[in-house]
Write a structure and sequence with these properties.
Length: 429
């Protein structure tokens, strides 16, 4: 007979695969923009809106109500519905014939993917015992990291295969001969949802535990409960927002920096920069899960937050990576910076989940996603651009502009964690 714990890790595996698929569908457009823009006659502004705003805005807006739904209703069915919507919408992107149709499909991708994180983290919170919950949540986060890396590599490989005629026989059988390769790629990655839905149907909805809020689950009471916990939650959410500003700034502008400063080609950047982020994400997920589980066993969540504070300090010091005189040194320092940043963020995410009762974990995750989108994607890259164009008025100052944004972000994050830990220590005295 299969043990409940075995079933729990099977659930974590399936949800992590869902995170991989979500990030592939979310980011695969980044490697298809040139042929896609040419076929649909998109301007650079329209292309950026399809990739960014049309997805991010609705993802942020939909996240909170879907988080509340995850705290009330069957989470497995919410995840399944989300997969069907975002994968179906990804396939619809492959049929788009105009900017409006593509933007509408991307909005639906955002709606579907907004359902995953709140429901999945709530399921993991109930399905995995406390002393292993940190590792389980970090594995789920690792799925997002792997998906982000695979979106570029798998998307590029599938595009090359389509260009080489590998799918011509199947297209001919479907009377789709001559279909542009970028459409084929979107159809293929969208179809990843079919086996994923079958796997999700095999899961059981975890029994909700640790319920203690009674009837305090109405929408107004949800926000009242968060307001009552602001002293233990707000510093962590603000820390995550600061880290997101840094992470999105680095992800958006480091490739451009490598081109401008060192004349690196796109293929080399994809391998080295993508590999750097992938390695840092995997290491950070494993380390963060181990640290939080170790702290949970000792009954002291502040122990893990001390490591988050140390990591924030390291991320602050290594924010100077952008001015390294050699591209390999730049990436080596960035590897340290990105690992430290991710450890800080993941520990904060897990700590928030551990501090919330069952009835608030879904919406708690939604607030995290909301901050990542509004502050990280919404502010980070733009602040770097403004520093370059308005503050320094020199495109050659991109390295300084990156530091100008990410160093203060982690200075604030470090200060927030330090003050929070001091306040918690005084409260225990």
């Amino acid at each position: 007979m299969t043990s409940p714990q075995h079933n729990s890790w099977g659930m974590v595996a399936v949800l992590s695969i869902a995170a991989i698929v979500a990030y592939i569908d979310r980011l695969v457009l980044s490697v298809l923009f040139v042929p896609l823009s040419q076929d649909l006659a998109l301007s650079d502004t329209q292309a950026s809106l399809v990739q960014g705003a049309s997805f991010a805005v609705i993802y942020a807006i939909a996240g909170v109500p879907l988080g509340i739904a995850a705290d009330r209703w069957n989470r497995r069915l919410i995840v399944i519905a989300g997969v069907v919507i975002w994968c179906g919408a990804t396939i619809a992107c492959g049929f788009a014939s105009s900017f409006a149709e593509l933007a509408a499909a991307r909005i639906l991708v955002g709606v579907g993917e907004a359902a995953l994180v709140p429901a999945a983290t709530s399921m993991i919170g109930d399905g995995v015992r406390l002393e292993r919950r940190g590792l389980a949540l970090s594995i789920f986060v690792m799925g997002q990291v792997i998906g982000g890396a695979l979106a570029v590599t798998a998307g590029g490989v599938l595009f090359d295969l389509a260009q080489g005629g590998s799918f011509n026989a199947a297209l001919a059988a479907l009377n789709l001969t001559g279909t542009p390769s970028w459409r084929v790629v979107l159809w293929l990655v969208g179809l990843l949802g079919a086996p994923l839905v079958l796997a999700l149907l095999c899961l059981r909805e975890p029994q909700r535990s640790e319920r203690g809020l009674g009837d305090a689950r109405g929408v107004r009471n949800v926000f009242a409960e968060f307001a009552a916990r602001r002293d233990v939650l707000l510093p962590l959410y603000l820390t995550l927002a600061c880290a997101a500003i840094s992470d999105f700034s680095i992800g958006s502008w480091t490739p451009t920096l490598l081109v401008r400063e060192f004349d690196w080609p796109a293929t080399r950047i994809g391998v080295w920069f993508g590999g750097c982020l992938f390695a840092s994400g995997v290491v950070a997920a494993v380390v963060s899960g181990w640290l939080t589980d170790r702290a949970s066993k000792k009954g002291a969540s502040e122990g893990a937050l001390r490591w988050a504070l140390l990591s924030a300090g390291i991320a602050l010091v290594t924010a100077s990576y952008a001015v390294a005189p050699d591209p390999h040194w730049l990436l080596a320092i960035l590897l340290v910076q990105s690992t430290a940043s991710s450890i800080c963020s993941i520990i904060c995410v897990i700590t928030i989940q551990l501090r919330l009762p069952n009835e608030l974990r879904g919406v708690g995750s939604a607030f995290t996603s909301l901050g990542n989108m509004l502050f990280g994607l919404g502010m980070g890259p733009t602040l770097v651009a403004l520093a370059t164009d308005r503050l320094y008025r020199d495109h050659a100052a991109l390295d300084i502009s990156i530091i100008t944004v990410i160093a203060p972000a982690f200075a604030i994050a470090t200060a927030l964690l330090f003050v929070h830990l001091r306040a918690r220590a005084r409260a225990r005295q």
